[in-house]
Amino acid sequence: MFKNLTNLKSEPKNYFVIFVLALMMVIPIWPAQGEYADVVLNDKAELEGVRPVIYPHWFHRIRFRCKVCHSELGFEMRVGANKIDMASIADGKFCGACHTGEVAWGLEFCDRCHSGLPGLKTGIKSGSKSSGPGYY
Ligand code: HEC
Ligand code: HEC
Ligand code: HEC
Q1: What's the pLDDT tens digit per position in 38-87?
Q2: pTM
Q3: CATH number (domain holding residue 48)
Q4: Contact 131, 62 (CB under 8 A)
Q5: Torsions phi, psi for 69 (to 5 deg)
Q6: Which atom of ligand 1 lies closest to the CA of 68?
Q7: Which ligand is nearest to the Cα of residue 56, counting in written order?
Q8: 62 and 19 in one domain?
């Protein structure tokens, strides 16, 4: 048995096995990609007296294809690039294409979107927590 271990050292094939095993231990700790995390939207929200919006990107992305939002609904793939406001949402644009009480719960649940703690800036949050008042 221990003789085999000695063999392990000298065989190039086994070096490869060790390399792959080492790689497998490293991969899970690579940081998650920011683009799949939560998006804080606070260009106007707090200025207008409501909490910042936390948009759980991952939560949505596992339910819909990218093109639903990034091509059909016209969301640009850059944080802060979309001029989203409540009037256009109520008009059925952006979040309002789905949050009508049909595809998803309606706009009367202000706190489910306006759930960020005061002071958050528009941008990416690295976690993938989805919603709920006071997560950040
Ligand atoms: C339900 C709608 C929706 C779906 C589905 C969706 N996204 Fe997004 N995505 C958004 C919104 C909203 C933003 C933030 C835009 C903003 O801040 O103005 C965003 C932002 C992004 C960004 C910018 C992140 C950054 O770092 O600037 C990337 C990249 C992105 N999405 C990629 C994807 C990919 C890839 C998929 C599919 C696997 C996808 N999205 C699916 C709505 C969606
Ligand atoms: C489906 C998600 C969602 C819901 C539900 C929602 N909002 Fe918004 N709201 C947004 C987004 C996204 C913005 C743009 C945030 C930003 O960039 O500052 C916004 C912006 C606002 C603003 C800033 C000014 C403006 O006109 O855009 C106010 C005020 C506001 N919302 C009030 C409300 C109130 C009150 C409710 C409940 C009756 C509500 N919102 C429900 C997503 C939502
Ligand atoms: C393509 C359709 C679609 C669009 C566009 C969309 N949503 Fe959603 N959203 C959903 C669905 C479906 C759910 C799940 C509803 C349920 O669980 O009943 C959801 C759930 C959520 C949740 C709750 C997540 C949780 O953990 O339960 C939040 C917060 C949310 N959306 C915010 C937003 C905001 C803010 C926008 C715009 C920036 C937006 N959504 C745009 C379809 C959409």
Answers
A1: 899 999 999 999 999 999 998 899 899 999 999 999 999 998 899 999 99
A2: 0.85
A3: 3.90.10.10
A4: no
A5: -90, -45
A6: 5
A7: 3
A8: no
